[in-house]
Amino acid sequence: MKSEAPERPDPAARELETLRKAIDAIDHDMVALLKARQEQVDKVVALKQAHGLPVYHPAREENMISEKRRTARAVGLDPDLLEDLFRRILRQSRVEQTAQLARRGIKPGARILLVGGAGAMGRYLGRWFTDAGYVVRTLDRGDWNAVATLCDAIELALLSVPIEDTSAVIKQLAPHLPPDCLLGDITSVKAAPMAAMLEAHPGPVIGLHPLFGPATTTMDKQVVITSPGRQAPQCQWLLDQFIAWGAIVVQADPAEHDNAMAVIQALRHFATFSFGKFLFERRIALDQILEYSSPIYRLELGMVGRLFAQDPTLYSEIILASPERRQLLRDYLASVQDSLALIETGDKAAFETHFQKIADWFDPFSDQALRETTFLIHKLIERF
Q1: Which of 15, 172, 295, 334 is 20 to 30 Å from 61 at the Cα level?
Q2: In this predicted structure, what is the pLDDT of residue 221?
Q3: Cβ-based neighbour number of residue 314 at 10 Å
Q4: Cβ atoms of residues 211 and 183 within 8 Å
């Protein structure tokens, strides 16, 4: 009986295997190139450490991205693909640089008192300052009997306490501070704390508002609002420290800051709270809603879920922080009531007229909004 001849590989299969091996070789080379790139980044980090240079250089990054998009078009590749790839590489580079530079203290050895240092944000900043070589002390509710000792020879007192307690804590703390100590706060309102600090302490004063929370793993591109108070040159080292950690520092007048935050934080959080409250009261089946939702609606519902996954005390403080914020929310509810009148009439033409007026007002931002949300939708699709 004749044995059967071995089956010959299909020519297409052989060619496919050859092509896959070639792709694997190219992938190997790409990994080697990324490693070589990282070695150059390490040299950049060493140079920045030696000369106190910031991690983030916006103009250079945007110029690089523009060049990569031009190159992609020239060789027949998708510019969006190249932009996504290089933005990911650049971000990873910044994060690694920030992690290494985080240990560089602008004023290493300086003694810092974190008032409210046992809270989540106090502990978070305490780790960053400690890793950068500062001597960190904490003052919390049960430590006031030792306040004189804790304040001895400190160079920065930074308050991380509830909004409603800030002014009272400032008055209680100020008599114990060295005259040249820098006094600052990180609350999400600025006008009242700034006025209290300037009145209570004769030395340098600065207001800060980090627009991120203690769950943030890197300060890369995180925004810190600063409101100058007194003796700005003596405050600069603290701002330089946040910049060295990768943050973007933006200066704002206290009143302008509070007006903006009333919309950015209080109004948006209240609207999200109200939407979530309505879903809860109607006992909406969230799993079904998610199943039927496109990525953009999943993202919107995700922001609602994100709010309710966090500390209610934080949001009550932000939303109800001041009479001005509460009045803004009343005005918002009055506007909603006006909109309800459009619904009651069932007048589509009136609704569309209002819609178009608002669309015209939003027009300068609309193209940017479409680009940014489209990017987020695509990323959500890739992730899930």
Answers
A1: 295
A2: 84
A3: 16
A4: no
